[in-house]
Structures are given as C-alpha cells and as structure tokens.
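Please, structure for the following, as tokens.
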Amino acid sequence: MMTRRGVVLAVLVAALASLGTASSAFAKEPQKGFKVFNQCPRFTKEVSLCLYDQTTGGEVVLNKQKVPVTKTIT
C-alpha cells in the first residue's frame, strides 16, 4: 500500500514527465488551421496572447473621417 507521500510523489513525477513531452510539441511550428500564428512571438516571455483577424470590407472612422476598407486587412 502506498503512503500519502508516495502518491504525491507519483503524481508529481507524472506531471513533470508530461511537461517534457509537451515542450517538444510547443517547439514546433503551428499546423493546419493554426498556421496563421507562425509569426506570433510565442517564445517571448512578455507575450501572453496572440490574436488574428481579417477585415474584408466596411470602413474605419478616424477623427470623424471615414476611410473605406477596399482590400483585406490582416
């Protein structure tokens, strides 16, 4: 029978082992639908979030001046 300390140690070892396998997955370039994030500085400590958006039409209002969006803006 495992003691409480043994169970905690086993859980800790399992958690650390899973981190080792996850780090290799994070080191790879994003795949499939996530390729838009290839330019994201995901290994920079200060960056915690990367967003992606495309605007294909409409207008932007800057200080009461309307600027039409005629081309896709990423």
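Helices lie at 4-27. Residues 4-27 form the longest helix (24 residues).
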